[in-house]
């Protein structure tokens, strides 16, 4: 999912769409000014509504952030599913899923940091966020067979691609560290992923 539409404009508020409008406003503020400057009042100002209006849908800032993060997880899940659908074989699905994960993180770094960061104190207290996060992980876990080995492989694969994504968006991997290769998500996932072999865990997985 890209937040590019949210970055460029926020639609004027229409009756019945206040919650969605506030989430879009929060996305804009998150990208422009960062999470510390994001508040219910700031989102209300950008959405063109009164400062008390957000409290109809969000009890506090954490609730608004959780809603934004939930949108992010749904976008991540959709991106990974599209990646899996592009794969011509079961062997390539993990590559495409990993590439989609990386591309999402790089293109939506602010929301990606929010999704996995500590700005939302108790993520379990927000059912929408919890369900969206579990659904995103299920895309990856669904490529593994049931059982302990499959679960371990899913976590290992997630750790690999998430760690790589975090290093990239934090600017920790420089071109000279990777022989000057371009930071293309597909190329990086393929290059670095070859050092990890999840094929044993995928035994029995049907195409």
Characterise the protein shown here.
It is a single chain. By secondary structure, the chain is mostly helical. It has 9 helices and no strands. α2 crosses α3 and α5 packs across α9. The chain is globular, with a radius of gyration of 19 Å.
Write the layout of secondary structure elements.
Elements: H1 4-8, H2 18-33, H3 40-47, H4 61-86, H5 90-107, H6 109-116, H7 127-141, H8 148-169, H9 185-193
Helix pairs in contact: 2-3, 2-4, 4-5, 4-6, 4-7, 5-6, 5-8, 5-9
Order of helices and strands: HHHHHHHHH
Helical/strand content category: mainly alpha
Main pleated-sheet profile: none
Which range does the strand content fall in?
A: under 5%
Helix count equals 9
Keywords for this entry:
mainly alpha; 9 helices
What is the structure about, briefly put?
This protein has 207 residues and is mostly helical. It has nine helices and no strands.
